[in-house]
């Protein structure tokens, strides 16, 4: 998220805080930030020990904090359905139906059954369409819940046991290992073997994050390396994951743009009909002394003719045809009202990792730095030899992929010893023998300064200065630097002394944009749609991606949303900053939600694209939420449109289709869309 881990903070704690503070007070980050306070204060705050909680303490905390799950209240399907008959247009239609079957009597004629049946069928059709739409929207929180860990290993009464993750409470001591889904927000109290956590779906960071004792881990993320023990600091809605679910739930209850338009039309019709009904009653009965049945028939004509009674149905059918057209472009429309809103979009906000980019690391070959006469291709080959060929991490996958066929990487050599990456020396090392002449060599790859410290051969002040300059350049551009060094082992022994490592190259690693992203952004800008990047990744990486895609690098960290624009930026306030900036980095789900909300409040129609859990709240809040291919279940459920193939070009095609169909609908129902 941020470029640095948050520093520990000291706080003054009240006596027995777990009992004397309310839940809201405990999770008020302005007062007590459990993610950054000193470890000792965390244990004091939660009244916990490394031996775990007792059963009595657990039961008391259930009463205070509830279970570690996302509560999702189910509304009766019947009530949901009936509520779609409670709106201005439906009121007029219902009034017309009542008049047709109840009041339209007398004169020796039966009630007006034909009009009654026709009106009821239209009411049912409109309600069914709306009901299906809302049921689809309600699946987002369920998908979030499905992403949570089902079980957790916890220490209670000094003994380890496996329990349902829903039974965790703040203060529990948990154990996580390779492959585990983190069951709750927690702080590491012990880390073994270089703990690495994949939290890309939550925070948008393109690489697994290395964690040490004291760092925070998030519910729903996955342990990719190492083992750790941690103290639970947040459960249920008081977690990173829970806050995202709460935002999704709150935005799903909001009224859409199309519903607002229909409500305005309905209100206008009601006012007009009431005025003309009063006038018609006075004229017919007081003025011309009409018979009761004759007058009622005229009033029924006014009721039915005074509103575009088939408008919602015709609109829904028209938009459904547009959705079918979009499906031919590999886009599934889950909420058909998004068709109309897509046509009016003026700002497209997009996640970076996995949306604008591939979420797949690559070596930027043209930028590789050489420090000897060894060619770039050979440097990459050396790095590939010093990588795992099985059970690879993201870096090893990137390097072996850049070389080519994994099976040929170690052709002609015999591995003698391989030392995997560890957080102490921050490098890998392989000792191998060439089968052709039996000579023994070593290769090491890793963090630039770890490799530089290792090197002794042909190392000069100029080379050191150049490496530091190259690393700084990569950092400014958001590229990760990986150094490679080699040495010979004259003795031919596995543990024999080498002739000294020599630095041969520096590999720049980055998450590349999708092949069609740049063209799509250019087309969007040409159509008058401004594109903004909103990412949880680092600011330097966001700016470099923006430069490569031609969308600008006028980007800021998420803290500016709270602190206000920097004095030198020239922006008046936060709204002005959000409107004109090219993007924001280091954001959490609530920041993405806030950005979309503020832009909507400024009068803009917003589309949001994303793929992870961290994007779900903003996808749900946006006028049009678009989940890209391979998105998480939570993102797909929160979105209005789901892409089934990589790339964003379908959004531009979809906007054209949406514009044509919304225009057709408006022309055929004579109301503005």
Automatic annotation (TrEMBL):
Organism: Rotaria socialis
Domain (Cation-transporting P-type ATPase N-terminal) ranges: 33-105
Gene3D superfamilies: Calcium-transporting ATPase, cytoplasmic domain N, Calcium-transporting ATPase, transmembrane domain, HAD superfamily/HAD-like
Recorded topology in the membrane: Multi-pass membrane protein
Protein name: Plasma membrane ATPase
Similarity-based family: Belongs to the cation transport ATPase (P-type) (TC 3.A.3) family. Type IIIA subfamily.
Places the protein is found: Cell membrane; Membrane
Annotated keywords: ATP-binding, Hydrogen ion transport, Ion transport, Magnesium, Membrane, Nucleotide-binding, Translocase, Transmembrane, Transmembrane helix, Transport
Biological processes annotated in GO: proton export across plasma membrane
GO cellular component: plasma membrane
Enzyme class: translocase
GO molecular-function term, one example from the UniProt record: P-type proton-exporting transporter activity
Catalysed reactions, as listed in the record: ATP + H2O + H(+)(in) = ADP + phosphate + 2 H(+)(out)
